[in-house]
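Annex B. Sample input.
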Amino acid sequence: MNSVLRILYLEDDPKDADLVQAMIEAEGVACQVTLVETRADFLAGLEQDGIDLILADYSLPSFDGITALKIAVAKRPEVPFIFVSGTMGEEVAIEALKIGATDYILKTRLSRILPSMQRALREGRERVERTFAEEALRRSEAYLAEGQRLSHTGSFGWNVQSGENYWSEETYRIFEFDRTTKANVSLVFERVHPEDAAAVKEIIEQASRDGKDFEHQYRLLMPDGSVKYVHVVAHALIGGSGGLEFTGAVMDETAAKRAEEALRLSEEQWRDVFENNPIMYFMVDGAGKIMAVNPFGAEQLGYRVDELLGQPVLNVFYGADREAVKTNLALCLEQLGRGKSWEFRSVRKDGTVLRVRGSSKAVARTSGPILLITCEDITEQRRAEEALFQAGLEARVSERVRIAREVHDTVLQSFHGLILRFQVARDMLPDRPEEALQALDGALSIADEAIAESRDAIQDLRSEPVELVDLAHLLTAIGEELVEAHTNIHPPTFSVAVEGDRRTLVPMLQDDIYRIGREILRNAFRHSGARHIDAEILYDEQYLRLRIRDDGKGIEPQVLEDGGRAGHWGLIGIRERAKRMAAQLHFWSEAGAGTEIQLTVPASVAYEMSAANSNSIITEPGDALR
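Annex B, continued. Sample output.
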């Protein structure tokens, strides 16, 4: 011993303590003795760090060695405890050793003090090391058990000759057996799925026969009818008195298998949606190049899938629409996750044009955002709508011809008969006044009938179509007329703005659009109390839009909800005309903020037919989406 030995000594006789210290130091061992004789001092001494050894007398006036031993075992079990006493009997000494004392030495035989101390210290170190090792082992086993639980991986051992098995707690949990059940191979076969039992049996028998590592996957059929998937890996250990042994791991892959199956089903479903849905699907990169297209989409456009991959997506759209498509897709890339809907035209490989209703959304990917685009062919739908609209126009013309015929056959005939009666009455005057008076009364009756007939005819006809004049000029003229006719000292200001290149409108459509605009302006001038009223006409490639705004008092919500005021037909007439021309009509109004009414007519309905638009294919990289 080279370092100073620190000793806590419970002794009431300082001379005895000095004698023990002298004998220890006489053997060349440096020591530092802390002498205590009361319970309080002993407890305080135990709190000190670095105590190597505890020596104690058995009997003290105010304390006793057995009590001190029990306290030391509880508080400092790692420190050796030796009794040094002159009165300790053999039975007490045995009891002390059972409690935890390392040794006992009679004061009459102090020559044994140093060997006893050396043995005590050596056993103390071994006890500490053993405690540390046991704690490390316990901690390691706890970590292993928790790791197995978290990873759903159990361990096992199998001695082929003896048939003995060892299962970890997680293995018991996987196979769902109670921990008290003795592990054996037959338990495995109790759980193996009947369809896998033969294969498992063959693998185990071959492994035990050949003494080689094995690995296999199989299913377990649990008591509740559920199925688990396990993956078993085993390593063969050959040699030793125990003969052939296997140690291995069993991994519960049920969750992973179910996730894989769910993913597979999901992928199949989405593959079906992508490949077989009668909708055109495109996946486009940030540069506007087609990354993927479904077979239906390629077929609709007259291409093979491989012909479209890597091509600018704008190629599949009509020349005049490409800039608008490009703008929409660029907005999607700027606002990830926000969808855009639109209606454009697509071009097939053979040059024919399709009407498509599309939507797009940009989503984030690690390699950069991509665009998801869907397009639905609505060509036939639009053709049917246009045919229906054209049929409606023809029906309206026919109806006007019919009304004109009725006017000729009824009203004009009535007036002709009226003229004849007036002539008869005139011829009776002055010689036959009474008869002339009767003739005039008859003429008045016919006049009443003619007025009723005229009112009915006018109600059907309503009004004559306007002349084919620019729509802006027509609205300007009616606006100026309404300003002049306004009774207020300060009539509202009025303006008409035009955006886009002016286009020639279908005459019957221009008539309806003008009359809708005129009715809206009349209502605004007469009822809104506005200071400013303005009209805006937008000629777009896809539609014609008329928007009229005022900053007046607004329309009551109930009136808008009911479609008009009781006994008034203005709003009803506007809606009827818009519906007949397949147009969209939107109302916005807020109390004190004014009213905005917007009429949107599809270009295919509003504009006169003109030369076909350019249909060239984009080939320069700069034309692709950036």
